[in-house]
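Data deposition worksheet. Section B asks for the primary sequence of the deposited chain exactly as it was used as input, without tags or linkers unless they were present during the calculation. Section C holds the resulting structure in token form. Section D is free text for depositor observations; keep each observation to a single sentence. Incomplete worksheets are returned to the depositor.
Section A, Depositor: J.P.
Section B:
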Amino acid sequence: MTPGTTSIEDRAAWVTTCIEEFAASEANRLNESTQEPAWGKPLIGFSRGDDPLYEKIKNDVGPFYWTPWDAFGRAFPSSDASDEDLTVISWVLPHTDRTKADSRKGTSYPSERWARARKYGEEFNIRLRDHVVDGLMASGCEAVAPTNHPSWERKVSERYGFASVWSERHAAYVAGLGTCGLCDGLTTPAGKAMRWGSVIARIQIPPTERPYTDHHAYCLHFSRGTCGKCIERCPVGAITREGHDKKKCLAYEDDFTTPYVLSHFGIAAYGCGLCQTGVPCESRIPVRREHRR
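Section C:
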């Protein structure tokens, strides 16, 4: 079966199988010397290239931000496709129970498993993006992974500070996979301890149901005015009731966690992730369905 010649339902199944099988392969490892996977079973969602939320996000973040067509057009400038011809394929890669258990014990620095997942797990994620693109292209469907494209870059949003031209977290939100929380993490049915990925393709696939209208629907702080456990988990006070201080968070990663990971584990990787574990949203949606919208 190839996605370009089957029904739209079968195309979704083809893409889902493509992602799940690669995630179940030996490519998904914490490093070359272990059989321990970096990620659990992925969650997968789809959104339309002409979903009005993408234009809304662009207007909110800044004019530099890509809509699906902006990203697709950079890879295929001569294509006659329009935004309604495109589908954004999004996935979530949940951390394993062992990685989350290790991270839960931490109070200042990331655990070795977390650091390995951040480095080798993201290297796998890069390969997964290319794997999905290669499969689609081989079947005759033009496709691009925006964050793997040479023109992807980080920017500064006048409203939000550190940003980028394409956010896979926002794409996952549009695809119904989760909502943002106080620490800016994405809370999904598999929780907040995860990474995300995306590919934009000229293919018609039904969009996944988006079971929320509020982009903070799954966060207890915003939906109930309670919790705030991620505030307690942050070792440098980068999270408060007012939100996430990206500059303070990044400075801690650059100046403290990166040297720590290199000296203790021999891994050139950055990250912290303590706010993603030891919290009610670590592995689930903590808000009851009737309160989510």
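Section D:
The mean pLDDT is 94.
The chain has nine helices and ten strands.
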